[in-house]
Amino acid sequence: MTADKEIAPGLMARIDGKRDDLIALTQELIQIPTLNPPGENYRLICEYLETRLKRSGFDCQLIRAKGALGDSDAYPRWNIIARREGSVAGDCVHFNSHTDVVEVGAGWTFDPFGGELKDGNIYGRGACDMKGGLAASIIAAEAFIEECPDFAGAIEISGSADEESGGQAGVAYLAEQGFFAPERVQHVIIPEPLQKDRICLGHRGVWWAEIETFGEIAHGCMPFLGDCAVRHMGAVLDAFENTLYPALATRVTEMPVVPEGARTSTMNINSFHGGMAEIPANSDALPAACVPDSCRMVIDRRFLVEEPLEQVRSEMTELLEGLRGSRPNFDYSLREMQHVLPSMTEKKAPVVTSVAQSIAAVMGVEAELVASPGTYDQKHIDRIGKLKNCIAYGPGILEMAHKPDEYIGVDDMIDSTKVMAMSLLDLLAPAP
Description:
The chain is of the alpha/beta class and 432 residues long. It is 33% helix and 23% strand.
């Protein structure tokens, strides 16, 4: 019997014994309302993690992304990186979780920041995405260190800002500072909620853009004296429906994207506004009678690894230029807001192999290799950090992210914690 097989039963039992600790840790993380926007309590959650991880022998750095996109004195962007060195040299395994959560929204029947435990589930904003995964990685690391104090290499745990708004002041900033350089970190696991028996290899690309159509203001009782920008945007929408959306639906990727509907190219109309500023809902006030001279629309285009970014851009430009040529007085502007290229880790990468073996050992099932419909912080580790050996793996159901009554199952967290710990055992085998 190998040393790993001799250690594994004790490691699994140790994690079972930490069930109450895992629940409490998840609840306490949820109870820190790290809403983004605007970016609340980032320092508070980093200090909480620092206190916790120092008890397990981690050296902690609190890092403010000074000057990064989103950082301000009112809402400073704080990150934490904690590192625990082993007894001898070896690889470094890094668990990265974002600490921010999205707005609460309507429809909750639980306190969004209460962390209530009911029927084996913990409820709250961020429970699934991704404070449950963060808690699981901490418990996995602590249990492994207790069971294997003489491990080789190093373990890192980070809590980073702003993933929900692009991660420029979080993982992107940390990668720019060299924290994800391949000579410093060799394996990265991001505990995003992709389900406990799945390994996420990467994600589709994204292209956000703002389209504005122009017209001429005039009195609303004489619209023929003006030019309605909203009607021009209606022509854009018509072109989307009759030309662009049918074309996107025919493109299917070879990437194992889940759910099935996301294996094609997609586009969401994120926002739409034309004319006078909106009046409050249910107000008795009336807007001024004017022909709108501007209409703006923001689009969220998700593209496939088979689609070059320039094709995505030119396809939209050609559609708008076609309208310019066919529709009288049509004029527009097109502004790119952001783009992210698709990312994909090799199926035989060391971290993929290790986590797949651990899923089989813990749950007795073959790991499903998938790709995410949306981007996450792997994009920065890949593009800026130049580190390819990176995956997303964590507990939780992807479809629960950003929903009312968001929850995570305790049993799922226990299983994922065991998988993470077993991967540490595989990648950082105890020194002789």
